[in-house]
Give the backbone structure.
Amino acid sequence: MTAHTLPEIGTIEPNQHGYRSFSLGKFAFARDEYFAYIQWPKGHHLMPVDAFLRALQRDIAWGFFYGTVNFDAVIGTLNHYGTVDLFAGRYNAHYRKAGLDYVETFKTPLIQRVFEAMLDDWTNATFDPFASPAETGSAFGPKNGHNKEAITRHRVTARRMVGAPGDEPRRADDNGFPVNRGFVDVPQDEPDVKPEPGFEDEVVAFNLLAYLSRSDVTWNPSVVSVCKNSLYCPTTEEYILPIIHGNDRVEWFVQLSDEIHWEVEDRETGAARARVTMKPGDVAAMPADIRHRGFAPKRSMLLVWENASPELPALISQGKLPTNPVQF
Ligand SMILES: [Fe+2]
């Protein structure tokens, strides 16, 4: 028996498992058959590589999203909308106390490029990081091809409302995606719209549940309507949200079907704050100073309502706006 050692980091040549290593500032990343290894000047960490790739996939596809994308309790990114912090232990009270936390800031295109290259090299042909575990193969083992088609999917973003003139193609229907196995009972009929003459381009409707029933990805909000900074971002969820999202603004959830369990923690320290079980029709406003991870035992539909106003994070962090939408 030989002791297992960390895969070599900092080379671009494939290691003995066939995977390249990557560096970004003073961070270094490597993978072997089961794990992703992350090193920084004061510490190192590992994650199961399937969980790492699912988180990495969303961070890239969402353009680093609103606020914080924690890959787990140690590693993650914080979006400054132009630059991105890559951190280790920064939002973990114990790493902070031990002085092991580390943050480095990168221009968005640089971190995006390194993350995309890592996702491409480390995702095998058998694995789709956007799919539910029951609908994809294994992420593990030695390097085995690529899955570029899966990892370069973009989330569907309407410019107005789905169905309105000028919206993006109605991907689910237009591209013939099948109804997901979790939603075979969802009616597929479309609403009957009878606008007054002259308003044919103004009054539109579509079957949102039918639209969502054909989503082939999990935990990947699409944008189905845009009204100034108000974005309706419904999504279908199954298994575990691959990231722990740290909000920089209030975020509204409307549970459209089935059930999601949320673990809600303090954004800065990770201390537990609440457990929320959402059933169909339940509405929650997630505060601006929390982080949360969802668990969906069965594929479910969730409407995420985002206020994309660019001034919100500063107003909230300066205390000019409350972190809760309602003061009880
Ligand atoms: Fe969130």
User: Anything to note?
Assistant: The chain has two domains: 22-151, 171-216+218-317. The longest strand covers residues 290-307. The radius of gyration is 21 Å. The pocket of fe (ii) ion is lined by residues 245, 247, 251, 286, 292 (CB under 6 Å).
